[in-house]
Amino acid sequence: MDYAAVQRAFALMEQYADHPMDLADASLIVAAETLKTSEEMLTRESLRAFLLEQLRLLDAERQARCAKFGVTSLAEMDDLLQKGAVTEEDILEDFQHVDYLTTRVERVKQLLTENSV
pLDDT of 29-41, one tens digit each? Predict the structure, then answer.
C-alpha cells in the first residue's frame, strides 16, 4: 500500500472506532475502493487465488514424491509395495506424505467448489 492508502486505512479505523476494525480490515476496504469492486468480491477472489496457489504447491510436492518411485499416485505407490518392487522401509515416509498431500489436495478442491460462485 502506498502512503495515501495507509492514511485512508487509518482514517477508516478512526472513523469506525466504535466497531472492531484492524489494519487488515481497513486495508481490505481501501483495496476494494482502489479496484472499484466490493469487499465481498475482493475477499472471494483473494480466497480463490490463495486456494489455487495452495493446490498448485500441494500437487507439485505430491507429484515430486511420486516421481521418486516412477509413479503418479498413491495407488501406484501401493502397487509397488504390494508387488515387492520396493520395501516398506524405502517407501514408508514418502507413502505417508503422499497420502497426507492427497487428502489435502482433495480438501482444497472441495473448498474451491464450495466457494465458487
Answer: 888 999 999 988 9
Contacts for 12 with CB less than 8 Å, ≥ 6 apart: 21, 26, 29, 30
Cβ 105 vs Cβ 51: under 8 Å: no
Residues 108 and 70 in one domain: yes
What mean pLDDT comes out for the span 11-25?
76
Give a yes or no: residue 41 inside a domain: no
Tell me the mean pLDDT in the region 31-59: 93
Contact 94, 68 (CB under 8 A): yes
Q: Are 109 and 55 in contact (CB under 8 A)?
A: yes
Judgement on whether residues 60 and 108 belong to the same structural domain of the protein: yes
Contact 43, 28 (CB under 8 A): yes
Exposed/middle/buried for 81, CB within 10 Å: 0-12, 13-18, 19+?
A: middle
| 61, 37 Cβ separation under 8 angstroms | no
**pLDDT tens-digit profile of 75-113?**
999 999 999 999 999 999 999 999 999 999 999 999 999
